[in-house]
UniProtKB/TrEMBL annotation:
GO MF, one annotated term: 3'-tRNA processing endoribonuclease activity
EC number: 3.1.26.5
Protein's recorded name: Ribonuclease P protein component
Keyword DNA-binding included in the entry's annotation: no
Keyword Nuclease: yes
Catalytic activity: Endonucleolytic cleavage of RNA, removing 5'-extranucleotides from tRNA precursor
Gene that encodes the chain: rnpA
Lineage of origin: Bacteria, Pseudomonadati, Bacteroidota, Flavobacteriia, Flavobacteriales
Domain of life: Bacteria
Enzyme category, top tier: hydrolase
PROSITE patterns: RIBONUCLEASE_P (PS00648)
NCBIfam families assigned to the protein according to its UniProt record, in alphabetical order: rnpA
Function: RNaseP catalyzes the removal of the 5'-leader sequence from pre-tRNA to produce the mature 5'-terminus. It can also cleave other RNA substrates such as 4.5S RNA. The protein component plays an auxiliary but essential role in vivo by binding to the 5'-leader sequence and broadening the substrate specificity of the ribozyme.
Amino acid sequence: MDASFGKKEKLKSQKLIGKLFTEGSSLTVFPIKLIYLETPCQEVSIKAAVTVPKKNFKSAVHRNRIKRLLRESYRLNKDIVFNNTQENFAFLFLYLGKEIPAFADLESKMKLLLEKFNARIHEKTNA
């Protein structure tokens, strides 16, 4: 598994993003919320997007910084999910905090969140 976050892995479909908000399930490990939805087959098993609310961060510079940190922490830890699931999913990472996080904190929370997601998926498939 390569540790890149290429074009094919990015979630860009407005239709699918809308569906995520209406039908998706969510998990939270503060300050990150993961909204996910099982999707029909696609070229990669997981497509992901990140978002930071304008309400909490008026400055685009700060929003973009947090989005870069979120994407990087996902890129480094996505193998936790890729190696443990056969289904296809759409992920949306939503940043809930009120201040700009340190990368180390964000990365540890991302690991916890992805492990929590794995636990939930395995629970569902074994039930």
